[in-house]
# Entry
Amino acid sequence: MPEIPRRQISLLQETLGKIHDKVIYPVSRRGYEHIQHGIGRGIREEGLTLPQAVDRVYDKMGARFQLLPESSSTVDKIRNGAGIFVGNNQDYGANFLYLRALKDRPTDNVYFFEKGASVPYWDESARGHILPVYYDISLEKTHGYLAEKIRNSSEYERIQGLTLEEMRQLNNQTLSDAATRIAEGGLVTIFPSAGGDEEAEWKRGIGDIVQELGNNRPDAQLIMGFTRGTSQWDKYKLAPGVRRIKPMDVRMYVSAVPLSNLLENVPQGADSKIIARHLRDTYREWVSQKKVEEKSVSPQRRPLL
# Structure
């Protein structure tokens, strides 16, 4: 197979980058902003909880959502429990799906992680639910046109005022705040692989939260969510107009396990990486089980995707 000249590859990357900037990104960003504003209005003007506001926005979009809890106990934990709600990663806006699953909680003690640079774009009524995270956009792992694009992006400029050490300190404070919210009875949603696929390693942050929480909330749960019917194209379905052509149709499996039970098998004094790995293995095993169960259900009985 002939080798493609490097210059042609560079031109292709540049062309794709421009298409992304001029067409794809504006559509997906518009959809994300539409949801952000809708959530803000729901909380501020209608007095809805965060999950209720999310559900209202998606319902108006015609997006279907089916929650499939494993048991009545799981239902109770979703509605009233404290803990960590973990999920597999989808593209843009995945956190909204997990927030929607919590619409029946009577209290508004639900929190989610969001890029610190994005917090100013949220309505003030929603900011109290945000756990901001900061990260360094590593140009060492990115090359060519994309690296230049990132370097010149407004987001990169906004976070350049923070050193790596300052970002680390802010993130540590956020993880500590997450543990405090759980100790107070709240539920924190998190995607532990930070954007990776199902096979990606989980970041140590979830282990840090569990360590910080300690015995301050003996009844804390690990609530596991796994979605079907999602795709990388969902971010475009969020945009006004597009969402009516092909609305989202998602089902979510959910199960709850006491954190104390899971930690019994973790060596005493284990660091946060080991804790995160153990929770990841538990989650993967459960997802594998769900996939096997799915295959055993006939297509006629299986909910439509």
Observations:
- The domain at 6-134+163-296 is CATH 3.40.1130 (Glycerol-3-phosphate (1)-acyltransferase).
- Strands lie at 64-69, 83-87, 110-115, 130-133, 187-190, 221-228, 249-258.
- The first helix runs from residue 6 to 46.
- The two ends are 39 Å apart (CA to CA).
